[in-house]
Predict the 3D structure of the following.
Amino acid sequence: MKYSTVILLTAILFLFSCEKDTYDLINANHNKMMILGHRGMGELYKYPGNTLEAIEPVLGIGADGSEIDIQITKDSVVVLFHNNDLDNRVNANGKIFDKTWEEIKNAKYIGIQNDVKIITMDDLFNQIKDVNIYYFSLDCKLDDRYKYNSGYRKLFLRSIKKVIDKYQFNKHILLEGDLDFLMKAKELNLNVECFLTLEEDIDKKILDAKLNQLRGIGISLSSLTNSAVEKAHKENLYIMCWSPKNAIENNKAFKYQVDIIQTDAPIHILQKTNRYNYEYQIP
């Protein structure tokens, strides 16, 4: 077989392999997918998630925004942090709700990049250029000791509202939580897009979201089914999916026609959808 023929066959096989990863997107979000980085650039990035160093790059490469994990301090400052305890993640210990912001504001993440600090949501929004063009999904990490306490929940939501009101881009904030939490947000006039996430029964989750006029439901990729997506879209509810780890899982989420993806592999999905900003230099 001639070399040129081999090249031609290889090119054809490549085109067919690429075609398998391409799907027509038909969803409730005007047939578009909102792409959010999971805690920024994802768990494999060199900088810790939920930091300015991880979030700025995902916006720079073309993502619509980022999912962030948030908690509140004893003095009601909204802080980006995932774990229940500070221990073993930063050079501080204890629980965030037991600390004032003054006590932990200089806490640095432990790792190869050892000069990365915890950041508040206010500081994050303040440091991102044109922040109101982006979307942020808030995964609210309620303190395990008080997570079902009504007063604590309202305090958490009022703390979020204070920051959001300052920047005036409510509809670009996606709030994740159980039904009680989201209803309390509505009572406090927290005018954001609400996503029901913690209900195990998907059919009940869809029904509750519809009856309470929520924007949609949040669901893990492993729990997604074609039936759930079809039922949600029939009710004009968005599906927010987390957190594909790689290209294969991104493609799976894309095939399910989800409306919003929180991904640990943002580069792949942005390139797949021809939205990657090649002019941006990732730090």
Summary: DSSP finds ten helices and nine strands in the chain. Residues 150-167 form the longest helix (18 residues).
